[in-house]
Amino acid sequence: MSDKQQLDFAGREIDVHFDGRLCIHIGECGYAKGDLFVGGREPWCDPDAATTAEVREIVERCPSGALTYQDKSGVPETAPAENVAMVASNGPLYLTGDLDIQGAAEDMPGVRFRAALCRCGASQNKPFCDNSHVEAGFVDAGAVGDRGAGLTATGGSLKVELRPDGPMVLSGNLSIRAGSGRLAWQGEKAFLCRCGASNNKPFCDGMHKKIGFKG
User: Fold this and answer.
1) Which of 25, 115, 148, 149 gives 20 to 30 Å between its CA and that of 39?
2) pTM (2 decimals)?
C-alpha cells in the first residue's frame, strides 16, 4: 500500500477515511481490539465490523490525523477540552486540541484535532512527521526542563505558526507533556525547535541559524 494513498471505507452508519500522507504507522488502529482494522483483509478497514461508538473512539486514537470518520448521524469529531503537546522520545511532537496548523491542506481534516509534527528537521513532509527521525538517528528522550508561566484556562484555539527556516510557534492555551508522560510546562506561547539541533529541546535556542536549517 502506497503511503500516498487516500482511501475511503464506507459503512452503513459511519465512514472512515485514511490519508497516507499523514500516516506514520504508530499502529493504534491495527492493535485495537476487534475487527474494525484487520491487516491482510480486503478491505483492511470495515466500519460495519464495529459499533459507531467504537469506530469513533478507535479512529480518534490515531495520533497523526491520518484517520478520520464521517458519522452519518451528523455527530462530528470535536476538539479535546485541553490543548496538549506530547514530546515523543526520539520522535515527533504529538499535538491534540483545537488546532490551526499553518501549511495544513484543506483536504487534511484529521489535523484539525490531532497531528504529529516533525521536530528532527529531516521530514520531507514538513511540518508533519514522516518517520525520517529514524533514518536520521534523531535522539532526544523528551525531557522538559522549563515549567512555563502557567495557565488560567485550557482549550480554545491553538495556532501553530512555522517561522521560515526557524522554530514552530504555538500560540494559545497549551500544556506540554514530557516523553515520560509528566505534565511539564503550561503557558500561552511556546517557541519549539524544528531543526533538531537545539540544546534546550523541545524549545528553540537559535541553533537553526548556526546549522543553516531550511524548512
Assistant:
1) 115
2) 0.94
Secondary structure in 3-state letters for the chain: CCCCCEEEECCCCEEEEEECCCCCCCCCCCCCCCCCECCCCCCCECHHHCCHHHHHHHHCCCCCCCEEEEECCCCCCCCCCCCEEEECCCCCEEEECEEEECCCCCCCHHHHCEEEECCCCCCCCCCECCCHHHHHCCCCCCCCCCCCCCCCCCCCEEEEEECCCCCEEEEEEEEEECCCCCEEEEEEEEEECCCCCCCCCCECCCHHHHHCCCC
Question: For residue range 47-82, what is the model confidence (pLDDT) as tens digits?
Answer: 999 999 999 999 999 999 999 999 999 999 999 999
Beta pairing, strands 84-87 & 168-177: parallel
Cα dist from 165 to 11, 25, 58, 161, whole Å:
43, 27, 36, 12
**20 in any annotated domain:** yes
Shared domain for 91 and 191, answered yes or no, is yes
Express each pLDDT in 15-52 by its tens digit: 999 999 999 999 999 999 999 999 999 999 999 999 99
The whole domain housing 128 covers: 84-211
16 assigned to some structural domain? yes
Q: Both 175 and 142 in a single domain?
A: yes
Last residue of a domain, one of 25, 40, 71: 71
